[in-house]
Specification:
Number of helices: 0
Radius of gyration: 13 Å
Distance between the termini: 31 Å
Order of helices and strands: EEEEEEEEE
Structural class: mainly beta
Strand order of the largest sheet: 5-9-8-6-7
Amino acid sequence: YQYHFVKISANNTVTVCTGATDRAIGILQNEPSAAGQVARVRIMGISRVYVGTAGLAVATTVGTDSSGHAVAKTLDKAWINGICVQSGLTTETASMILYPPRTLSV
């Protein structure tokens, strides 16, 4: 699940986001091969991320979908995690500027 949004699931544990309303804490940077291995999670800065349905355009406000992929977020009070800086099509990777989770205010 490298380059997928993750959320906290237990003490010192993360899991891939499974809901479009999940509050992602960051993007997984490595590929732990088993439970208990170190997960490197980027919480701020520039990261690659897998793109969900409909693709992503530059300057789009981004959050997670139910598969941990990046999707455009436009609804008031939706959880967002950053802005797309390099576009991508569905199932490709794009680049985004990550910041701590917050709700969108439109």
